[in-house]
Design goal:
Blueprint: H1 25-33, H2 38-64, H3 94-99, H4 101-106, H5 115-132, H6 139-157, E1 174-175, H7 176-201, H8 206-220, H9 224-234, H10 247-273, H11 276-284, H12 289-304, H13 306-319, E2 329-330, H14 331-337, H15 349-379
Parallel strand pairs: 1-2
Helix pairs in contact: 5-6, 7-8, 7-10, 7-13, 8-10, 9-10, 10-12, 10-13, 11-12, 13-15, 14-15
């Protein structure tokens, strides 16, 4: 019988190898991200050419040739147009934005009373920032201050009529103040109401399920502009004689209900993504329905649909511009309203105002998007590579 004796242990040491080439630096990043394949290289070159064609003229128009200061349309018009700029000049009219900045922020709110919305805005920031910091203490107290105390303070200060404060009717409100109020109230109401609607739509009780489904499908099938029109014009027709309530309040209710219907479908998607075993495990522990939802199901479901929730919030923030249909002037509405000012009538005034409004909307929406990504990373419990 032949046996084969194999040697599996090396009899000598392996010679040292050269250290690996460091994969880092700018060149490596460019190779990996911009020039990894021929197609990537072509797209990168085309993109760079487009940017080289667009960015320098944009910078020239927005900043270098822009009119930054002045007291009238003359600084934003050429000599031929009755202004002080040389013929052929074209640039942004930031002097118009600077002159109208207070109106863009407060609308037609009385000058002597603008400390009231300013104070509410400062309190909003002071209460909101700790809520956005995951490790900040006293979350419960902070939530009470933000969602219970602040609305009461705002209800007293903004309209007035209390404690000797001058009453300021809501048609005088406008600008960024209206945009932020509508957005905050819509967000604060739509998320909990959307959760309840989503749970109701998945309920085993036929009446609850039918009512929630009917509400969601009805509201989602109607444009927001129609909801606002109905709340402003048609709703008073169904009220008893002499009974009415503020137009701005109607807009708040319409926006909140509209956003709630969309939020309900986002949350329902998260609930459907939770494995059945999570429900069965909660039932096996003897938890009640609300304990099961609050402690096990909803925390996982909401974490899964953070992008969809924030997307709904961003859409709501931008849709506030539709309140112009009922005579309210949000940020975009008050900017467009000031285009009719003859003292600032020029060819570059409208586009300058619209660029400013677009930048403010982008700033808030981009901030919400970045915070959404931050929360996804904080709540991510998956194994890191």
């Amino acid at each position: 019988m032949n046996t084969h004796q194999g040697t599996f242990v090396r009899g000598s040491m392996i010679e040292g190898s050269a250290p690996p080439v460091a994969e880092g630096g700018v060149v490596h990043w460019l190779r990996e991200n911009l020039f990894a394949t021929p197609k990537d290289a072509v797209l990168t070159i085309v993109s760079l050419l487009v940017l080289a064609w667009f960015v320098p003229p944009a910078i020239q128009w927005l900043f270098i040739d822009a009119a930054w200061t002045g007291g009238g349309r003359g600084v934003c018009a050429t000599v031929a147009q009755g202004g002080s700029q040389p013929d052929g000049w074209s640039g942004a009219c930031w002097a118009f934005v600077n002159a109208k900045l207070d109106q863009f922020a407060y609308g037609r709110y009385p000058l002597d009373e603008r400390w009231r919305p300013t104070l509410v805005g400062i309190l909003f920031v002071l209460f909101l920032v700790p809520m956005l910091i995951p490790k900040a203490p006293f979350k419960g107290i902070n939530a009470i201050l933000l969602f219970a105390v602040l609305p009461i303070i705002a209800l007293i200060l903004l309209p007035g009529g209390w404690f000797g404060l001058t009453y300021v009717e809501t048609p005088l409100w406008g600008g960024l103040m209206v945009t932020l109020i509508l957005s905050f109230v819509g967000i604060a109401v739509s998320l909990p109401l959307g959760i309840l609607l989503a749970l109701g739509r998945r309920s085993h009780m036929p009446v609850i399920k039918m009512l929630c489904t009917a509400f969601i499908e009805l509201v989602r099938g109607i444009p927001l502009i129609t909801v606002l029109f109905m709340a402003s014009v048609m709703l008073p027709l169904f009220l008893p004689q002499g009974v009415t309530f503020d137009k701005f309040l109607r807009a708040l209710i319409g926006v909140s209900l509209f956003a709630s219907a969309y939020m309900a479908e986002v949350v329902r998607g998260g609930l459907q993504a939770i494995p059945k075993g999570q429900y069965e495990g909660a039932d096996s522990l003897g938890l009640s329905f609300w304990q099961k939802m609050n402690l096990i199901v909803l925390p996982q479901a909401l974490k899964l649909v953070i992008p969809g929730i924030v997307n709904t919030f961003i859409g709501l923030f931008k849709d506030t511009s539709l309140v112009s249909i009922i005579g309210m002037f949000d940020l975009l509405g008050i900017v467009r309203f000031n285009f009719t000012d003859a003292n600032w009538a020029s060819s570059v005034t409208p586009i300058s105002g619209l660029i400013f409004a677009g930048f403010i909307f982008w700033l808030f929406c981009f901030g919400m998007s970045r915070y959404s990504g931050f929360m996804e990373r904080v709540l991510d419990t998956a194994h890191k590579r």
